Prior knowledge:
Layout lengths: L1 H23 L7 H22 L94 E5 L15 E4 L5 E2 L4 E3 L4 E22 L2 E8 L7 E11 L4 E6 L6 E4 L7 E9 L1 H4 L1
Antiparallel strand pairs: 1-2, 1-10, 3-4, 4-8, 5-6, 5-7, 5-8, 5-9, 5-10
Bound molecules: calcium ion (CA).
The site of calcium ion has 4 residues, from loops.
Amino acid sequence: MVKLTVLLRKGDCKAERDGGRLNSQQSLPGRRPRMLVLQAALLLLALPSHAEETPTEEPGALLPPPKGPCSGWMAGIPGHPGHNGIPGRDGRDGAPGEKGEKGDAGLIGPKGDTGETGVIGAEGPRGFPGIPGRKGERGEGAYVHRSAFSVGLETRVTVPNVPIRFTKIFYNQQNHYDGTTGKFHCSIPGLYYFSYHITVYLKDVKVSLFRNDKAELFTYDQYQEKNVDQASGSVLLHLGVGDQVWLQVYGNGDHSGLYADNVNDSTFMGFLLYHDIVESS
Ligand SMILES: [Ca+2]
């Protein structure tokens, strides 16, 4: 480029000299157009080279007047701007910023698993009495649990070791006492009360109250002449259905002093005191 510039400058000087000579000599026809073309080419070439050699000068500034032998020197046309360079390297990391403000509370997490069963607590205080219950149904009539008899002698007893037959009936509505045998027959199991009151006259009295074939109670009274005595006894016995109870004279001697007439009585009685609850249910 520099070499070309030098060559062109030499030509330019020669053309200038020739032009000057031509101008003074009234130019020849056919030479002037070639001179114009050369001057234009020199202008184009001289501008860039001039820019390189004098970079500090601003565009459009007045060029210094040519010196030396190349007094007709002219600046070239400025070249095109160069291409953009490659991007530079990344900068260094900045200093850490200030600590930010506390963030909002997070969302509520899912429900946890069921815990273990706790220890059983202490027993609580006694509660208030409850309301009374309903009135119970009407119970069975007492009639089915009735059993009673009251009987007496109508004649003197003369035969020992057999049931004494009391034929004077004061009460025997349930007919649990059999006047033909002198025995009470238990139809309702339970507790029974028995008693007897004997008028003793003319002979001693020994009587036993029998339950089935066993003498349970004994009563003995000695007779004194011309005196009327009384002998008595009572007992509670638990009887089952079918049990039999009666009175009879016991012993081998003559102790059948049981007496009764219009104004004297010997009596025997019994009744159910309590029936068995099991049987009633
Ligand atoms: Ca006596």
